[in-house]
Amino acid sequence: MTRSYFGTDGIRGRANAAITPELALKVGQAAGLIFQRGDYRNRVVIGKDTRLSGYMIENALVAGFTSVGMDVLLLGPMPTPAVAMLTRSMRCDLGVMISASHNPYEDNGIKLFGPDAYKLSDDVEAEIEALIGADLRLRLASPERIGRAKRIEGVHARYIEFAKRTLSYGRGNGGGAGLGLDGLRIVVDCANGAAYRVAPEALWELGADVVTIGVDPDGFNINRDVGSTAPGALIAKVHETRADIGIALDGDADRVIVVDEKGRVVDGDQLMAAIATQWKEDGQLSRPGVVATVMSNLGFERYLRHIGLDLARTAVGDRYVLERMRAEGYNLGGEQSGHVIMSDYGTTGDGLLAALQLLTVVRRRNRPVSEVCHLFEPLPQVLKNVRFAKGAAPSDAVISPVIERGRERLGEGGRLVVRPSGTEPVIRVMGEGDDRDLVDEVVDDIVQALAKAVA
């Protein structure tokens, strides 16, 4: 079945254009019907980030879910991983996050979690798509079975306590003895997004001296010049405050990047390398390896091989990383972009939890972040995008020859990945290898060929 709505991370598009109240209502009805279980009152939990359009989509989803007989628990602005955690913790039948992640405020999206707190499979998403296009009038709840909706208090505290308990050496209320974050000056950038309350408070409660930016959402400024995709403000603040580390989350806080005390950006590959190294020493890895996508740097793969670990690669998307982790028993994986999944603690990428695990490594090694988080030298990597009109991507027959020539030129010492984005109408071209000039030439040749093909 052709997927009309779901991409690599839920449904996403421009608010009130692609993501309309009508669509949100139908998603609520369709998902609600599929996830009704037994005769008891089924429940769905809904969180959102700070986009203006979140109010509109939230209300439409509530109408959809209640119209098919599901009760709705509203969380307000909360990180995506918090919604996943609370879905399972509160014994809900479905979890929903209203967010377009790192996209600008004009966009929004709908992410769905099953009762096990994992993102839905392709098959279940296909079932939902089929119902979205169906006439559901005869399947609506009778008047006495219409669902109720209410806002839930105290959810921020629940997630903060959950996050603190994952810090093995934390000092949280009743938590483990040992190292906390006392003495660390941390700049945290919440992207004016979903974690603007919980992330600073969790770090402060663990003892850190916390400096905040990106904690004043107004409905329009999510991800604007702040957050994990725009680290300039964080770098400047780390220098200004002489902080030990800077932590930048994205709009829904499921990804994180770090800035060390020298102002250098640390991406997801370096974060995973630091955590994997510590977990290997502690015997905490369930398998001797890490799962990452085809976009992770070859230098990361070489480093892991050097310390006796494998790198299992997947297609781009944290859902595919998680599927491989679950299927083969890995407990650490993620993406270069900053999604880090630690299945001992959560069912999806969690920027705050990943940052806390890194801070544990920093405290245990008693070394500056610049040393802890720079374990390998990344190979030169070039990433360029070619935009095309929706539905007008070039065929494989047109671009395959130039891609094959590029792979031949890079040889065994390099990699080439050409793929359509799952969230916007662009084709991403990534090349890497030991010779930067050669990588540039190969990527430029492919970009030019693609640009001609879509013109």
Automatic annotation (TrEMBL):
This is Phosphoglucosamine mutase. Activated by phosphorylation. Its cofactor is Mg(2+). GO terms for molecular function: phosphoglucosamine mutase activity. Pfam families: PGM_PMM_I (PF02878), PGM_PMM_II (PF02879), PGM_PMM_III (PF02880), PGM_PMM_IV (PF00408). Residues 383-448 form the Alpha-D-phosphohexomutase C-terminal domain. It is an enzyme of class 5 (isomerase). Binds 1 Mg(2+) ion per subunit. HAMAP family: GlmM_B. Keywords: Isomerase, Magnesium, Metal-binding, Phosphoprotein. Belongs to the phosphohexose mutase family.
